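Intended use. Records like the one below are meant for learning the mapping from a protein sequence to its folded structure. Do not use them to infer anything beyond what is encoded.
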Amino acid sequence: MSLDSKTVAASAIFLILGGALGGAVTFSYMQSEIQNLDDRLDSLESSANVVRLNYTENTGLSSLFDSVDQSTVYIRANGTGRSRGSGFVYDEDGHIVTNEHVVADADRVEVGFIDGSTRRARIVGTDPYTDLAVLKVNKRDLEPLELADSSEVKVGQKAVAVGNPFGLRSSITSGIISQKGRSLRTQGGFSTPNVLQTDAAINPGNSGGPLMNLRGEVVGVNTAIESNTGTFSGVGFAIPSNTVRNVVPSLIEDGDHQHPWLGVSGVDVSPEIADRMNLENTTGFLVVDVIDDSPADKAGMRAGNRTEEINGNTVRLGGDVIVGINGEQMRGINDILLYLSRETEVDEEVNVTVIRNNEKVDMAVTLGARSDQ
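Structure written out for the chain above:
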């Protein structure tokens, strides 16, 4: 209720009380009554707002589910083993996005839709490094889901997971984006950067399904959970939509996706490592090993040359510390992976800045394509 409405209501009460008591009501008494009325009106207005907000949110989730359910699919893959998962319609041509681990080594894949129909699917392309895969089905009147810009995702915003947990089709759970910028270990010891973390319930069978915002846009592809039991324990992960936007067109066109690669392994610099190597700063990525004949090896990057124990772990020290690429600061491996995936391409020459013997050294490195080495 507006301030003017409150004033009118209060004035009415004043006139009624004044007339009823024959003018015996004191001014201070009337002030007290008006204040009580204001408090009651504020309480009623607040309660009305709560009801409206809850109604809007519940209605929104129901409408969202109704609008995306027909675009979320059930996937059954048979090969050396059986796998069950989820996916979503990527375009009207019949391309379906899911996880690579859902269809890995499968020789027969079937996709089920909410209308009860099932289609044989062809595996168009896979990328184990981002755990993404694309299938192709022959079906008309498909409704693709729209990809959001995952760089605009905020920690704390609502997130909705749609999929088929434990084979229970057409399920929806809601939560929030718990964090972003996580690193998720994938095939060959590589890591996928900028992964989203959510507390929306994700369980076996949700893999490959969409993680969505309240506008019905895909912000990520559900891919993994952190659990000691194999079931959801409050921490789930999703490959961000911008990675999908970058990788999926290559999978459709070429069947795979080439990731720019330096060819090093190592650890982020910690205060203990910085102390042992007499480094001025505790940021950067310490190169522990350089893979033979890799781009880094060809450029002359140096690996560790001595082994020491730090906090109970054996670490090879003395190698180059990567602190920059093309003038951009690299605080650790996540920065390096994110920069390479967003800003570079295979066969591109980049300028890598390292700390060697407490001095900055710039070296030209021609990036290669990531391999399983």
